[in-house]
Design a protein that fits this description.
Keywords: Cell membrane, Glycosyltransferase, Membrane, Transferase, Transmembrane, Transmembrane helix. InterPro entries: LipidA_mod_glycosyltrf_83, RgtA/B/C-like. This protein has 612 residues and is an alpha/beta fold. The protein is built from 25 helices and ten strands. The protein is globular. The termini are far apart.
Amino acid sequence: MRFSLSNLPAFFIASFLLLFMTGVMLFSMSKDSLTFDELAHIPAGYSYLTLQDYRLNPEHPPLAKDIAAFPLLFLDLKFPVQSEWWRQNSQNPAWWVQFNLGNEFLYHSGNNPKDIIFWSRFPMILLTLALGALLFIYARRLGGNFFGIAALILFSFSPSILAHGRLVTTDIGAAFGALFAIFSWLNFLKHPSASRMAWAGVALGIAMLLKFTIILLIPFFALLTLLYVLLMFPSHKLRRLGAYLLWSAGAGLICFLFVIWPVYQFHIWNYPAERQLRDTIGDLQPGGITFYENAFAISLADKPFVRPFAQYFRGVFMATQRGQFGNTVVFQEQIKAGGFSSYFPVVYLAKEPLALHALSLIGLAGILWSIKKKLYQGWKNGLITWSKRNFTILALLIFIVSYWLLAISGNLNIGVRHLLVIFPLIYLVILAGIQKLLLYLPHGQRARRVIIALIILFLAGYALVSLAAYPFYLSYYNPLGGGIQNGYRVAVDSNYDWGQDFYRLLDFVQKNNISALHLDYFGGEDPAYWLGEKYIRYNPCKEVASNATPAGQRQCDPPLEKGWLAISTNQLMGGIAKPVSGFDQPTGYYNWLLKYEPIARAGNSLFIFFLP
């Protein structure tokens, strides 16, 4: 049901929400230090724009990093092109090289790291605002002004959006790309024309330049097109399907030839072909994907016209490998190499505000009720009628479910941020369900008034929870997850501790006149740069390689006996978590610390101990 709210007040409220969101992100990020992945993404983006050389960070597409690096072009920065980490003369470049080079660029090349961090994050905030504006526009089209405002409230007060919308990563870009591409494709399906086909192809290309998992849109759009033809043109299926296939092929050509190819060509302009071939072989030979896929990317890597496609698919296959092999993950105080099938459902339930989950239940009830209302025609006819009248919502549901299944089946468990791509779609589905529920409840009925009151209450509670979490959005957990103080017991990494509280640790060291600090830190900052001689690296289980000990093995040092010790919760949980069967790395090396209570925290993620 569309409530009456004229356009001018709606746009005023939307503008206020986006402006408020801007202030929250700017002020909250001013105290947040460099996070782990930013150490690789920032120098990679700067090297793309200044050197047109794509040797760094090929496992992520370039567009988000380009956007972040653009303001850096106006700073007088020095890039370490003579560094051994840039030259990478080994046959198999190590994954850590990009982080080592990032450290050298930010902290050891005469640049101001805080200027670099601020100005590279600022465009990401603008991208987040663009996503919010796009969500408001599409929501208004679906359900009117109130619908648009409600969607923007869910977006602008989301702790996860506020946390990651300020950082130089690909996750917010992926959400923008998915929303833009899906609605462009739906518009093309409903009103096919050459211009809409071209626009859909451009939107798809932009989305695929923002994150590699967006390649899932290709089979999704194929399924969506087939479903649309079957539902909307039952008597002329083959003719209509043939026409749509031709249109879709045109959109695909525009996507790859006129968006992806020129962007990648720019980025490899000064990347030597022989170097690209060598690096591609080094990155893909150990892969878990099929030999034929590896051979495809490798065979194109030094061919003049198709080198951009080789670089693109090199990244796709690297991302696929990463998803297959996963990582070492600490989840619910257990540690495992690979993924937990319950990871994303639990983290989503624990990280998102309870008010959102309550609204989700109301929205789901509304969708199921609207389907039930059509079943008087029989199951088949009822579902067909509902699908025809609610094709956009059906499309969003299909993509959301598909993406959830992909996330759950993968082994890469490093944060709820990997679900951000579907957050705007979830908001739209929730509100569409609520709108349908209200549509079927008569005016003046008590149940309708109660539901409206609950919706207003939940939206207000949602906003208040977000305000209360300021500025610790990255560490936010709802009460079921233990709250901001104890959420680390559910999951760490980018869910809780990504290195964002390091500046708060510096403040503690200064205020307490600490002359020596043992530190086990997880994040993007260089502690030695900021702490100097006060910094004593404490790594209780470090990798060693000698004639007696093979590379990759770990050697554990004895417990610290006295002095100041600060530990990132990511490192602490890795040292006390219980190993899942088959995990063969040392564990329990921080159990000795459990008898001590931290005397303070830097922010939420860095525990500070004093051992007398």
